[in-house]
Amino acid sequence: MKKFITLFVVVAMFAFAACGEKVKEMKDAADNLQKIAEAGKNIGEKEKVAEAKLAERKKRGDTVAMPFKDLQKFLPTSIAGYTAQEPRGESVTMPEASISHSEIDFDNNGTNLKIELWDYNHAEQALNALTFWSAGISVENQDGFQRTMKTGMDNVFAYETFEKASKRASIFYAISYRFLLQVSAENQDNTEFVKKVANMINIKDLSNK
Fold first, then answer.
1. How many C-beta atoms lie closer than 10 Å to residue 50's C-beta?
2. E strand or H helix at 119
3. How far is CA 107 from the centre of its chain?
4. What's phi and psi for 129, nearest 5 deg?
5. Is 2 helix (H, G, I), strand (E, B) or coil?
6. Where do the structural domains in the chain lie, given as residue ranges?
7. How far apart, in Å, are the Cα atoms of 178 and each of 20, 69, 128, 206?
8. Residue 179: enclosing H or E segment and its boundaries?
9. Could you tell me the sign of the dihedral formed by the alpha carbons of 16, 22, 24, 26, in that order?
10. How much of the chain is in helix, strand and coil states, percent to nearest 5?
11. pLDDT truncated to tens, each residue of the chain (209 aa)?
12. Distance between CA atoms of 137 and 62, rounded to whole angstroms?
């Protein structure tokens, strides 16, 4: 398949050789195909790491999501300028899956800030789909943007979004193929505040679970 794509691109380039702009367009298309192939390979490698991490947890008997009250211990209880609400959460255990969820809301004159943390231990397939964040995706237009971002931490991937009309900013962290962290805030001009709040959470500690 790869040889066929390469041959197709080469033939197409020669067909448009008389037009320099067309040649450039085809070269860009070829480069994009290569990037897609590399991203697919990268995602495949991440899935293998996820399987290995799950096997490690099973080996030491860590086969269910932690109780939601333990998850709450990772969430901040105070943020300057905001009033904290009562934290909430739940744990769900089934024969083939285990998930826990905790969240806390903060308010500032009607402006909401929400922090949510999920533990997908033994329900890893629900989280593994997010390994595409490692592919370096970025979309920006007149309505806002959504893009992956580097975290500088092994097995921790992040994705940020901003909606201009609603002024809603969010950041998501997929942590060690097990946890998902989401921080969302209203009335924002960018994602800097939600990033700052996310940094209040011990993501590195979670990544070692």
1. 20
2. strand 111-119
3. 25
4. -60, -20
5. helix
6. 2-56, 63-207
7. 49, 17, 8, 9
8. strand 179-185
9. negative
10. 40, 30, 30
11. 433 333 333 333 333 334 444 334 434 444 444 444 444 455 556 566 556 666 666 666 556 788 999 999 999 999 999 999 999 999 988 877 788 999 999 999 989 999 999 998 765 565 655 555 656 778 899 999 999 888 888 888 899 999 999 999 999 998 888 899 999 999 999 999 999 999 999 998 898 87
12. 33
- Cα 167–202–197 angle (5° rounding)? 20
Contact in structure between 25 and 45 (CB atoms under 8 Å): no
Q: How far apart are CA 200 and CA 166, in angstroms?
A: 25
Pull the structure tokens for residue 185: 């805030």
Spatial neighbors of 47 by CB under 8 A, at least 6 apart, are 128, 131
CA–CA gap between residue 67 and residue 206 (Å, rounded): 14
**What contacts 180, CB < 8 A, 6 or more positions away?**
117, 118, 120, 127, 130, 172, 173, 174
Domain 63-207 CATH assignment equals 3.40.1000.70: yes
β-partners of residue 93 are 98
b/e sequence 86-109, b meaning 16+ C-beta within 10 Å: ebebebeeeeebbbbbbbbbbeee
Pairing state between β 144-149 and 138-141: antiparallel
Side-chain half-sphere exposure of 95, counting CA atoms within 13 A: 0
